[in-house]
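User: Predict the complex.
Assistant: Input components as received:
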Amino acid sequence: MSAPKGVSELSVPADERPKDAAASRAATKEEGTPDRRRRRGWVTITLFLLPAMVLFFLLVLVPIAIAIYTSLFKWNGLGGPPTNFLGLDNFVRLFEDKIFLGDLQRGLILIGLSLVIQLPLALAIAMLLNQRMRGRALYRVVFFVPYVLSEVITGVLFTMVFSPTRGLANQVLDLVGLGNLATTWLADPSMVLYSLFLVMTWKYFGFHMILYLAGRQGIPRELTEAAEIDGAGGWKAFWYITLPLLGPTIRISVFLAVIGAVQLFDLVWVLTEGGPIHGSETMAVTMFQQGFKRYQVGYANAISVAMFLISLVFALGYQRYVLRRDTEGAITVMRDQR
Amino acid sequence: MISLGRRSVALLAAASLLLGGCASEDGGDTGKAASKTIEWWHIQNIEPMLPVWQALATEYQKAHPGITIKVTPLENEAYKAKLTTLTQSGSIPDIFNTWGGGVLQQQIEAGLAKDITADIAPWADTLTPASVQPYQFDGKTYAVPFDVGMVGFWYNKALFAKAGVSEPPTTWTGFLDTVKKLKAAGITPIALGGKDKWPGHYYWAYLAMRVAGLPALKQAGADATFTAPEFVQAGERLKELVDLDPFQKGFLGAGYGTPDGQAALMGSGKAAMELMGQWAPTVQRDSSGTPDGIGDDLAFFPFPAVEGGKGDATDAFGGGGGFAVGKDAPPEAIDFLKFISNLDNQRRAVATGAFLPVVKGAEDAIKDAKLASVSEALGKAAGFQLYLDQAYAPAVGQQVNDSVAELIAGTLGAKEVTEAITETAKNE
């Protein structure tokens, strides 16, 4: 069995592909005229797509439309449709809202830290776990387990770990003689964002690690071997062979990390509710506060629309300018090789 | 190359989906009418009241064949979120918990809560007037109370004695002195759950009541103006307290009812005081994991008077709980409320120690001396102020909580607090 060539193939197990091909060949044989075949094809496509399209329309497109519509109103969410039309006032208010502007700043810090610390850490561990070593499979599972836990469980767990009086974090620091580094983690407004990032890293690095590991295994062994013969071992081989060939995986993982940081909510809510003094508040937390605590559903929807636009613009831009290289370059090259 | 393998990855992914799925909530069910099912949402989701409510519902169903009472007990915050989601779709349970004030008013304006003045008229005079007050607007009643209480200082007598304080303070200056003495004795004077914000707003609210007086607070709400010098002074008094650093280490991140939160610290005897409502002993016991908290060392004293203030020193700050009736509720819903509010059933509820009586004549059912002292202070009160985060419109109430939290954290001045609240109130 040949090694998988990249992340994109993870979802399509190799041993199923030939069957698909055989099935479609059989189908072609049964078909009549090209016209009828095409019509039947459309019917099949429509039938198969219809349930998904209906769900997508009702559960994704309609709510987005409603959110955009209600974001133009002053509305407390009670008793029927909104009536107090404000135009774009809610969006103007966004840009004067210190908390929302702070959310943007904190979001950028979290994204920056993720890219500079979390992803390189995940990459390093993935490379380590790619070596031959005793208990490798166990390590892989152990590092992946935090990602499997739900955000709420993680949040509750770390409120205990970071408890200023009885928390594990301070006790461990004490034990290793770093007691003077003991701090109030989640209770210090200037510290809380970094504590949050610590939890995020603990929770999500395993996911990125698995991505990198899968990507690393897609790199043909011959390449590294050839490099070794040419005298490029260890660090050099990583820098000139592994890293460039991991490009597509890294670009996807960066994309997921950024979108994840923009939409971060449940973990923060359980850990700190965005506090103290908005020190760990994210856009989604502000949205929840406005909508569910202050009953300003119109304004909360304006925040959600802003989040949606930020994610959309980033996603489209990223696909257009960053991921295009992968669809035109790496993947087509791999296809040629096949 | 041997690897984790695609199958294992898929398995892990599937497992993560399953485990992650546990976190998602079930969809909200809808309250409806027509049939003889009464949808009842309450927030007494723990002992001792959970079984009592359930027993009352069962007894009522037995006595009235054909009526089903669907009981949904929810935790406080979960209840708020779930009800908000439900009301946005225009429906509401037949009987639902309310704290009165601004939120109830918005629900009334939206036509979700029913005017029950006429329905309860035959037995309305069995209820104490103060307990019904938070649910009355323009002379109409919108809910039946089941609990009423007030906020005050709960203190640890043993720790006070250790610090050489024999009598609880009755003035603000005396209170600050007590804090200093406790601190000097190496005791954490006050436990505070800063993460939850609402426990902190009690301090500002009480100081505003003592300095500016009840009419001024009411007027400020009506005028959407909180910038009067008295409100700034209230913030300055609070600043005097905050400057003494009276709270436990890491209080800004502590919750109220969490295992290392405000109530747990009191329940385990690690802090000398907390400013909290009549439910404090129950939560102290629950969250500290002790059989009886600090037991008889726990006692209650009302919020001290502030020298030169306009407010009456007996004025009480608090609130209670009531059951409002949904717009489409069957008449049996009100009959059921009458049933749970009769003297016998009220005695049963009060006897659990979770509630203070709202029905005249049930006072003798209070078994606990601590609760009796709260009831006594409530009886002496010349005036009553509902929690500010309930009394005002939700956005204003939350702004009070947020701004006072910032004052306590030291990032906002007394004057800026009043300005921030005013700005939000003006936008409402």
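The domain at 37-150+318-386 of chain B is CATH 3.40.190.10 (D-Maltodextrin-Binding Protein; domain 2).
Let me know if you want any component modeled separately.
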